[in-house]
Design brief:
There is one protein chain. The protein contains 14 helices and three strands. With 279 residues, the chain is mainly alpha-helical. The protein folds into two domains: 39 residues; 237 residues, no CATH class. The protein is globular, with a radius of gyration of 27 Å. The termini are far apart.
Amino acid sequence: MVVFWRSYKCNLQTMKKSVTQGFVTVLLFFSTWYVLQQVDWMSVFKVETVTEKTEQKLGDLFWEFFKMTEKENTNQFVINSIDSLISKICTGNSIKRAQIKFHILDKDEVNAFALPNKRLVIYSGLIAAVENQEELSGVIAHEIAHIELNHVMKKLIKEVGLSVLISMTTGGGGSDIVRETAKMVSSTAFDRSLEKEADIKAVEYLIKANINPEPLANFFYKLSDNESEAIKYLSWISTHPDLKERAEYIVEHSKGTITKTEPVLSQETWDKLKKEIEE
């Protein structure tokens, strides 16, 4: 009986010791995890800084490519008119207008796209193709959404890789890689989820800026009605989500939210802009 009692006490002490050790181990694990969570690893490894510097250099690098290969529109009336649309969207949404650098290229493609470092490129073909300023504002708002949501760098890092992008900005990428990457940015779509996110954000931008978002949906509907013909001009359309689907969720997201809309440009200014572009 005495032997049994001693054995029982020994086992009990062993169990208590094991439980205590287990508790201490768990406590140490969560304490360490908590401490690690407080560390800004992006700053420690300077990843964010590297990406920001890379983005700035990439934006300049890509724009230089387009500037050398395409003709930039320097018509001050055209520039001022588009600037008014961009400024209206930015002001209504507390977006720093000065950070967005936009360029207009004289090209027949119905296209607009974002570049790194908050650069926005608009083709004259898009301005010529839209029926009204609200449609154009909708496309511009969509591209600003890509910029503000950092979709451009997410796409580049995913499809090209950060190391390659850094190499490009330090002169180690070669002109061929720069050319192909620049073409990719201008002519291929973002992932379906990112496109939808940008569409919905664009609707929110337009509503806050008192611009009717429904014409953006109408623009997509029109393109979808003649999609095979549109693909000839709108190079990224075939890889975007279904245009009718996009138009439908833009309309759905707009329901009950439009309380006040007003044109940014006067009808006279809009008519003159269209004329200047089409000449």
